Fold each of these.
Amino acid sequence: MNINFSKQELAFQTEVREFLQDYNDIDGFLSQGPVWPQVRAMFSAMGERNWLALTWPEEYGGMGKGHSYEYILWNEVAYARAARNPLSSGVVAKSIMRYGSDEQKQTFLPKIRTGEVHFSLCYSEPEAGSDLAGLRTKAQLNDAGTHYVLNGQKCWQSYAQDMDFLWILARTGKQEDRGRGLSLFICDKQTAGITVSPLPTVDDDQLNEVFFDNVEVPVAQRVGPENGAWAIIGEALADERHIQFPPGRVRRDLEEMVDWLNAQGLGDDPVIRERMAHLVSKVMEAEILGLRVLEAMEKGRNATVDAAMNKIVHTLTCQDIPRMVLDYGGPEALVNGYRPEQIWRQSIMETIGGGTSEIMRSVVSRQALGLKG
Ligand SMILES: Cc1cc2nc3c(=O)[nH]c(=O)nc-3n(C[C@H](O)[C@H](O)[C@H](O)COP(=O)(O)OP(=O)(O)OC[C@H]3O[C@@H](n4cnc5c(N)ncnc54)[C@H](O)[C@@H]3O)c2cc1C
């Protein structure tokens, strides 16, 4: 692997760091709902600089830059704890560019680019998370052929309580068609028949359930061909692999926890120092794997296996860092709302969202090692 950022890329990194000085106290990477107004304002300020469209082609108002710019931006934003990368300007916008109608492009791309509208991804269901191709939310075309009528339930939707639009994966074909029977829809969250209901999470934050009760979605709001969603969501996922688990997050976790242990006067304890040294090597491993994903994407290689390895190491490191502090930090480390236990509770969910560790290990064992099963 040989990744050296160019002078221009390093200058961009400096610009991003300067920009983030105004947003250092948001804490929007670790928590979702409570700080959304501040995160939204930051995305608007990014939109003014066109940073939500760094890699978009110029014909859609983008800057036409390489993946490295997105990597630098969202890695710095993760280190600053400011926010997660918005799925609207990635998954949603890039799918609309590839598969959307002219009307969808004209309606949504300018507003996404400026940070004016935001989407929540409605994929998972109570019985369809890892096995997404088994989802059951139904989209039935009406007799007049003008609207689809959606019925069913989604769960675990990030940010759905605050977003303007839903990006919905629903069944238009037969259940036995699995992934070949699914279509994608854009739906205004205010449409009659949609209920968003909070699912409190272990870190005092919120995911959501989303219910569809005879929700009418115009045919013009289907993205891509009927029953053609599987390829679209696969391509969109591939586009985002370099920014999904940015190592800046674990680097910041480690620095914060080391500062915390030093403040407790525990930094010189040889047992703790030994554990810290181990964690430093884990963070470096996550950084190297993050860069491997970027390198694969920049060279046009399939990054699926690199991204799976990165996710396993990154998310387990997210857990190992605060666990070390809980093990050795004494009662103070366990106080509700103090940083160590707060980071610990948040880290528990990281190995699940975006595909569980077991699924990631299956990807590595099949695709990198050629194992069957
Ligand atoms: C923080 C967070 C944010 C999320 N955000 C969103 C969102 O915005 N939109 C959205 O649609 N979804 C979202 N999700 C849902 C997420 O995609 C699913 O939780 C995830 O895919 C796992 O699905 P599941 O919860 O149904 O677990 P299941 O698939 O039921 O898995 C249960 C257990 O069985 C194991 N397992 C399942 N299948 C296999 C297998 N084939 N081999 C080995 N082990 C297996 C799993 O690893 C896991 O340990 C989010 C989840 C989290 C935690």
Amino acid sequence: MFNEFQLKMLNREASLPKNSPSTIIEHLNIKDGMVVGDIGSGGGYFACEFSKKVGKEGQVYAIDVKEKSLDYITRNLEKEGITNVKTILAQPHGIDLPEKVDLFFLRNVFHHLPEPAEYFKSIGRFLKDNGKIAIIDYEKQKFSFTSIFGHHTSFNVLLDIMERAGFYPLEKHDFLQDQLFVIFAKKGD
Ligand SMILES: C[S@@+](CC[C@H](N)C(=O)[O-])C[C@H]1O[C@@H](n2cnc3c(N)ncnc32)[C@H](O)[C@@H]1O
């Protein structure tokens, strides 16, 4: 369970220039009026950044299984006067949303999902036509903290799981150190 300090640290880590948050956001191509779901939103750094991109007509859903994370995000939203981000409490195996989204974004969350192929099959119903899923996760490294604790995903495993869930890789970006960044689209779109 994350406490307030850990959530602050998650946001700090997400915002560090060495983790290229601005370049990540650029590559997501988020436009005014879009609906974006940030699954595993943690401390809410990306959800708040997305809120600037979607503007007043758009909507961001900060989605997490931890109520403490969502409470922390809600307090920050109130402090910052951000009105186009809603928090959604998720179950480990799936989500429920009031509308379809243009983009799901998952950063460092994929390796937490208990049955990822089933998960993405199920959330596909909340994707608009031509909607996309952007996944960032650690790649397996020989000597790294994240790999020792199994917090990683290999590119081939990711492709295989997403293929089984009905998605194909549309874009693969290689500018992140030690992390995969792949954007998927629904087969048939
Ligand atoms: C390592 S943090 C990443 C936070 C944020 N995405 C970031 O980049 O700063 C992983 C987050 O995923 C959440 N999480 C874990 N399993 C989840 C699931 N099945 N559905 C939604 N969120 C989940 C955790 O509660 C945590 O907030």
